[in-house]
Amino acid sequence: HRESADCMLVDSVGGQYLTASKDGTMRLWTASSMQLAKTIVTGQSWILAMCWLTKSARLVVSTADRRIRFYDVHTWEQVVEVQLQNPAFCVCSWTYGEAELLAMGNEKGEVTVVDISKGLKEVRSTGKERKHKKRPDYWNDSVTKVVHDGFIEQIEMVEDLGGLVTCGADSAIVIFEYPLQPDPNHKDRIIPRRILKHARGHQKGVKCFQWVQPHKLIVSGGLERQVVIWNPYTCKPVVSLDGHQSGIAKVQVNAEFEQVISLSTDGVVKVWDLRNNECMQSISEGENLREKGAKNSSIVYDAVRHRLITCGLCPHKWTINPQILNSTTDVTHRSPVVAALYNKNFGHVVTVAEDSEVTIWKPTTGHEVFNFFDQERDTETFLSAAAFDDNGRRLLTGDHHGRVRVWNFSNGACIKTLVKPTDSYRRQEITGLTMYQYEETRFFAASSWDRKISVWVDDSEDSGTVDPFLQISGHEDDVLTIAFTYPKILATGASDGNINMFDIESGARRLSMACTKPPSTGNTPRQAGSHAAELSNMQYVEKVLFLEQRNKTVVSVGGDGHIRFWEGVWMESIPQSLSASMMMSRLAAIVPSGHWPEFGLVETHVDDANNVLVTCDEGGYIKVWDISTYDWAAPSASQVKATAFWRAHPLTISTVNVIPPPADAP
Fold first, then answer.
1. Quick one: which of 550, 660, 649, 564 has its CA closest to 604?
2. Alpha carbons 146 and 512: distance in angstroms, whole number
C-alpha cells in the first residue's frame, strides 16, 4: 500500500488476507506465501471499514465519501453501491433466522441495521433530494437508532450476550438486543441491556473491543494506554493491563491459548496471557520502518493457521511457536540445564545439565546428534558452568567442587581436569569460565565462590590433573561472572555489586566499579531460601560482557533489574568524557529493563555484530533489545530499545545464547 492499512480481514475459506488502506485500495494476499494476489481499487476515498456477508458471498466496504459498496467475493467486481447520509465508521454482519443482517455505526452515534436479504428499493436520483433528510431510504428493511453520544468506533454481534455490542467516543461500551428496543421516552434511541462504563474503566473514547468466549469477558482498548478487561454481566472492569506507551488502536483474542493481542497507535503489538494478566511478548517493526510510515496500523489473528498478521504498508505473519501447538513438550534433560551454547564451527547447539549430561543438537531440526555423561562423576557433584574454548573445539565444564573439565565434545572424551586449592570455607563452586591467549601462551580462567579467579596454562602436553598457574584475589564477595577482552583484561562481577578489571599479566586489579551500595541481607544470588522478591532488591552483578564492536563497552546486569553500560581506560579509544575528567571509568548509561519488578536479571547475551542484546530474569522472561544505534562516543539510554518480551520458562533462566542467521539469509 502507499498509505497505512487500517482494515484487515481473514478469508479462512479462500486462504487469503484482505487489507484496505487510506489510499482507496484493497489488496488480497495469499496466506501461504504472503504474496500479493490482487489489487482492487475502490476510488480515491479512505476505506473506513469492511466485513464479510458470508451467506450472500459479498464483501461490504465503507468509505469516507459516505458510500457503502458491495463486492462479489468470487469475481471481486462491485455489484452494488449505496449513498449514505453519514459515513459508516464500522460495520458487521450476522444471520438472524433466514435473514442476513448488516449493522453500521456512524459519527452521530447512530446504529443502522439493514436486512440485506430483502434488497434495495428502486430509487432514481433526481438531484433534488433534501440535504436535511436524516438518511436515504434506499433499504427495503432498515432501522436506525441512537446508541452513543458521538462516534461509534466498533460494532459486533455477540450471540453469547444476546445482541449487539458497540463502543464509542463517549467512553462507553453498550450491549443491546436485536431487534432493537426503542426507548419510549426517546423514540430515536434504544434501551440498552447493559452499559460498561466505570470509574476504573475508560475515561476517554473506546476504540476497540473483543469478546473472550472461553472466559466470558470483554477486552477493550481506547485513548488511554491500558487494555481493560470487563465482566459484561456486572458491568465492572476486572483488571487493567498496563504496558503500552500510546493509546490502543486494535485488540484481538487468541481464545485457544487464552491470549489477548493489542496494538497501540505507535505500532507496538503486545501479547497478554489472560491466565495471569501478564505481557508475554512485545512486537515492534523498529524505528527505521516507522520513519517510512510503515509502523503496524492493523492486526488480525488467524485462528485456523495459528498466526498473528500485522500490517502497515504490507502484511507480516507471526506464527505461534510449534512447541506451543503440541499438547506436550519434550523434556530434553533430567536435571536443570546450566548452559546452552551455540558452536559456530559446527553449527550445533550444546546443552549441559547439572547431572553432567552433555547433548549436541542440530538447531535447524531440533534433532539430537550426540549425547554423553561424565562417567567419573559421583552423585554429590553437580555442574554449575560451561563454555567453549576460543576455537570452539573443546568444551569446558565447571562443577560445585571447583573442578573444571576439558572435553572433546565431538566424542565425549575428557582431555584433562583443572583443579584448584580448597579454601577454608569450602566455597568452591565454579560460576564462570573463559579462555584467552596472551603472547604465545593460552590460558583457562574461572570465577568461583571462593572470591578468586583461578588461571591455568593450556599446555597441549597436559593430561590428567592440572593445578592453577595463578589465583587472583580482589573481590570481597562471591565472584559470579567473568569475561575477557584483548589484549589482557579480565572483567569480573560479584554479589556485592562490584565489577573489577584485572591485568592478566600481573594479576593486579586495575580498577573497580560499583553499581550501588549492596543491601544488608548478605544473601548470595544462589543461596538457598532466598525468594525472588528478596533477590530482586539486591545489587549483585550476575553477568558482565564486552561489546567488542562498540569499543569494548562493558554491559552488566543484576538483581536491581537494570542494564548498565560502562566505559573506561580498557577501551581501545578512550572516550572524551574520561579524558576530560581524568577518571578511570564511569557509568555511561543505565537502562531500566522493564522486566517484572519482583524478578532480578540473571543472564544476558549479545550477537557477534553487537546489534542485539538479550536479557533474562528469575521469572523465566526474556527481553530482546536493539542496540544497533548505541554510540559509545555519545552514549544514551534512549539508544537501547526493547523489541520483544515474552515468558520462555516457568522458572529462572540459567542461560541464553543468540544463534546467528544463516549465511544465505536476506
1. 564
2. 70
Q: What mean pLDDT value characterizes the chain? A: 85
What is the grid cell recorded at 363? 538447531
HEC per residue, 328-372: CCCCCCCCCEEEEEEECCCCEEEEEECCCCEEEEECCCCEEEEEE
Query: For residue 216, how many C-alpha atoms fall within 13 Å in the half-sphere facing its CB?
Result: 8
d(CA 95, CA 87): 23
Q: Do 305 and 296 form a contact (C-beta atoms < 8 A)?
A: no
Q: How many CB atoms are located within 10 Å of the residue 409 CB?
A: 26
Degrees to nearest 5, angle at CA 26 with 23 and 32: 130
Instruction: Report pLDDT digits (tens) over 393-432.
Output: 899 999 988 999 999 988 889 999 999 988 765 678 899 9
Is residue 547 a contact partner of residue 473, using CB atoms and an 8 Å limit? no
Give the sign of the dihedral formed by CA 642, CA 648, CA 649, CA 655. negative
Single-letter amino acid code for the residue at 484: F
Q: Please report, for residues 173, 492, 637, the alpha-carbon distance to residue 540 in angstroms, rounded to integers and kept in the order given.
A: 48, 12, 21
- Name which of 14-23, 71-80, 315-324, 485-494 the model is least confident about: 315-324
Residues 132 and 118: their CA atoms lie apart, in Å, by 26
CA distance 77 to 67: 16
Neighbours of 115 (CB within 10 A): 16
Indicate the DSSP class of residue 150: S
Alpha carbon 41 to its chain centroid, in Å, reads: 35
Per residue in 549-589, pLDDT (tens digit) is: 999 999 999 888 899 999 999 999 988 888 777 789 999 99
CA distance 339 to 330: 18
Q: Is 505 exposed, middle or buried (0-12, 13-18, 19+ CB in 10 A)?
A: exposed
The amino acid at 98: E
CA-atom Rg of the chain in angstroms? 31
Cis peptide bond upstream of 363, omega within 30: no
Whether 600 and 535 have beta carbons less than 8 Å apart is answered as yes
How far, in Å, CA of 396 to CA of 408, rounded? 9
Ramachandran category for residue 526: left, alpha or beta (phi over 0 → left; psi -120 to 50 → alpha) = alpha
- For 569-640, strand residue ranges (E) read 585-592, 601-606, 612-617, 621-626
pTM of the model: 0.52
Query: What is the three-class DSSP state of 465?
Result: strand
Q: Dihedral of the CA atoms 167, 170, 174, 180 (nearest 10)?
A: -100
- Residues 47/22, Cβ–Cβ less than 8 Å: yes
CA distance 84 to 476: 78
Size (the chain), residues: 666
Per-residue pLDDT band for 132 (boundaries 50, 70, 90) equals very low
Q: Which three cell numbers stand for residue 57?
A: 458471498
Over residues 288-303, the pLDDT tens digits come to: 344 445 688 999 999 8
Q: Which residue has the cell 577518571?
A: 583
Amino acid identity, position 588: A
